[in-house]
């Protein structure tokens, strides 16, 4: 995952060292020597993440972070504070200033890179929701107003922890801000509790006696109800490698033992704030979509939304120097289904096709019904080979099992043809032309036998 990272430190040696570590992992790095320069660089460059030294002359890191997080234009940019300080009070101060994490020098490379990747994944998801919210507001008759986030009190946390002493500390600490804590006796029980509609946070220990606490991450991240639920890991000082693995598996934060009540409170509040911010954006987005942007039969977006949103996605991919893939999908011989089994059966096929497509895509991908039996899929940051593999997987998923008909129609074997085009990141793409290129490739797929994927490179050869 490529990204631009701003490193802020008044010590040139520290800047050089951090920049070298990040450049080794192919991140684009820019630097600033103080808080004032950092604010200017953020406004100018819009980095994907800021590594911010806490102790700097004049405008220190705490105040710089506070200003970034209080500005709606920059509040979504993750900030990791980096300092030689190792006092819990300073970590809490950084978290309360809005920092997403607080790392202590000398920096553990494994922890640093795991945290960077984790925050960048989260930012990518939140950027997509912010972009969708902006697009959907264009079509709402009365745009949904941005509501203030609720005070960070109340909520429900699920706790997976063996130690009675630490359970008591966590329940007492979170109870002081009105957070109800439910104890889970196992990973399986924790997952079941987390799937409840009112769960806001999962806190899981990596030091369980009889289970591997890391298992909770993939279980939660692969279920639709818990995919975006914050996960706070509890770990020992010497277990940083497993913490890094947890962040790669989808954990959103961690705290090291011995647990400090103030740090636990600050990190929990940060996760709850992020949770409520995500929920607010999703609710506003869903309310403003209404019927103007969604196909009422399949639940996919309609052509109107695609035409409004695709230019934004192309612009963003061009700005980040990343490609974008467009698939055109057409149901083979769909007219025969309607003629032989009726329109109710045809509607059932359309709905199931969309379900199978959506199950095979990332949350950031877009599915739109263009009319009739034709659909478009837009996949940001997808290059030729991965996009073709995804398209082939979607085709196979649809062909693999019959679709239940309607009105006593028998199960129907259905296939699709797919055309694919890639929008380059090094030139400006016309949204209409990228759709036409994918449509031309679809025509080639249908002309050469149907039930296959054709990319524009094949179609042009």
Brief characterization of the structure:
With 461 residues, the protein is of the alpha/beta class. It has three domains: 4-107, Response regulator (Rossmann fold, 3-Layer(aba) Sandwich); 155-288, Response regulator (Rossmann fold); 301-460, 2-Layer Sandwich (Alpha-Beta Plaits).
Keywords:
single chain; alpha/beta; Rossmann fold; Alpha-Beta Plaits; 6-stranded mixed sheet; 5-stranded parallel sheet
Q: What share of the residues lie within helices?
A: 40-55%
What count of structural domains? 3
State the strand order across the main sheet.
11-13-14-12-15-16
| CATH architecture name of the largest domain | 2-Layer Sandwich
| Strand portion | 15-25%
Cα distance spanning the termini: 31 Å
Discrete helix count: 16
Structural class: alpha/beta
CATH topology of the largest domain: Alpha-Beta Plaits
CATH class of the largest domain, named: Alpha Beta
- Outline type: globular
Poorly predicted runs of 5 or more residues: 141-150
Give Rg in angstroms: 24 Å
Largest sheet: 6 strands, mixed
Give the integer mean of the pLDDT values: 88
List how many beta strands DSSP finds: 16
The CATH H-level homologous superfamily of the largest domain: Reverse transcriptase/Diguanylate cyclase domain
